[in-house]
């Protein structure tokens, strides 16, 4: 049996032994004697009697264990023209002091802290400082509007909000403080302070209980890491669900550290001393796991990039960073490569840089289309690895495990289930589907360490959203199939979640925004295929009888509303006024059929349709 098959088999046959072995890669304040606690099933807990500190494992043990002078973090920011390096000792010291600053404000174990920070070292420092004192961070992506930020503040009830004065987009400086003030003007919950890191590109006006990051740090003393229970929450990360209300994915401390450390070696083949770069954002799970925690847990050097794949300044930006910092492996979203390919199809920029040390490209966040796969492989001459996972799982479910046993790639497939994940493809009735047949991808419980333990303050919602559809299984929300060799092909979501340029968004929440417009009687938003972004949202609205508004003006208002209430990241630009929406006789909008038509597929007309003429009219609009 090959290394992969044997490891996979053991992970499912003997999870206890498998994960206790993996747990040895972590320094525990109190080593766990057991791996899985199923006593509160389906709320499984990992390493129930273990205690640790994640920031200690990410920093101190390397700083004090011979890696003190090795770079831990390299910040490269083409949008500001700045670069900065932190050794493990330096990063540990900065984190210890900021943790002291948090402590001086009364933040203690279990308190929540919202971080609204762009791609700057202070984002990593603030995350790890929370972890150091057992506080629970919740990072909010900078592209979200005040309303989205407010929803997260209301749910997490943070003691503090920590922010920068601004984020920098290629076309504009985004001032954060007005966004925070607007959010806090609407929330019942008020944090005790907003701590602001002033950036020179745009300062923020502080008032009342607002605090300046630098002032706070100046008077702070470093604090030691606080051991927490392995089952304590490390962070909450909100993600889009099918409704407008974001889901607060809860990650525990122990399972997370063990799983991420294991994944770094087994999947990515990245080890202590290697230079690793994840081009994503700390606001997403990819950033949490693979910009911040995993590379530091294993003693690698992580690159933090504040820029875009193109336009900062050109389509050679990624190659420049790889060559300049000696990056051995890069993880990004396919959309980033499509952006590069669009501008520089022959990859002429690539020839300007020395990439001899570069070993592999990992892609996730959305489906890797075979064209992009081939392009990247041809141009880079290195393995290009698609892998599939989601915010909830925290680390890859299916991948080509390069550190265990590299396998032949099948374009369009994320390769095989990763050890720990018991992947199934089920039909409507919960029956296992044979190879080649597409169905709902589920994960048999218990999920391995590192996956979500629940939704913040919403155990029932967790159960309802993920565990109720197929008893004994976790519903991923993705559909796909396993082929005869056990390769997994992930085809798309079965719910209202869409992926726009690797950003996960809910069409349900966009519909809620459209429906709030006084002229709109009914609406639907679907994700349609897009060459660059993978998917983009497209809206359809039916006007209220007698609504007196010009179509063009209405369209503009609706686009502006989505931008105001969800944020620019929604990339909502297209909305059509239609006479009616296609529905079943029981009144359900036929979104799947609409998606199929929009993507140019020959979609069969559902037998349950109420009025075929409506579908024909929509087809004309979509193909128009
Ligand atoms: N703060 C504020 N605004 C943000 C933002 C942030 N952190 N990130 C994006 N936005 C804004 C952009 O400025 C843009 O605004 P605009 O409508 O005024 O132009 C809008 O949100 C859409 O941004 P984006 O999705 O970045 O699209 P783009 O057309 O500017 O760029 C890509 C396209 C492909 C270059 C870009 O999406 C990209 O780099 N994607 C990488 C994907 C990624 O990292 N995904 C994370 C999961 S792995
Ligand atoms: P997020 O929670 O933001 O990481 O988004 C997770 C969702 O993105 C998954 O449920 C999939 O729908 C999609 N996704 C992520 N990676 C892949 C991949 N490699 N192939 C196909 N879809 C993917």
From TrEMBL:
Residue intervals of the AMP-binding enzyme C-terminal domain: 510-588
Pfam families: ACAS_N, AMP-binding, AMP-binding_C
InterPro entries per UniProt: ACAS_N, AMP-bd_C, AMP-bd_C_sf, AMP-binding_CS, AMP-dep_synth/lig_dom, ANL_N_sf
One of the record's GO cellular component terms: intracellular organelle lumen
Domain annotation AMP-dependent synthetase/ligase: ranges: 67-444
Top-level taxonomic group: Bacteria
GO molecular function ontology, one term from the record: propionate-CoA ligase activity
Span of domain Acetyl-coenzyme A synthetase N-terminal: 4-58
Family that this chain belongs to: Belongs to the ATP-dependent AMP-binding enzyme family.
Record's protein name: Propionyl-CoA synthetase
Organism (species): Amycolatopsis saalfeldensis
Taxonomic lineage of the native organism: Bacteria, Bacillati, Actinomycetota, Actinomycetes, Pseudonocardiales
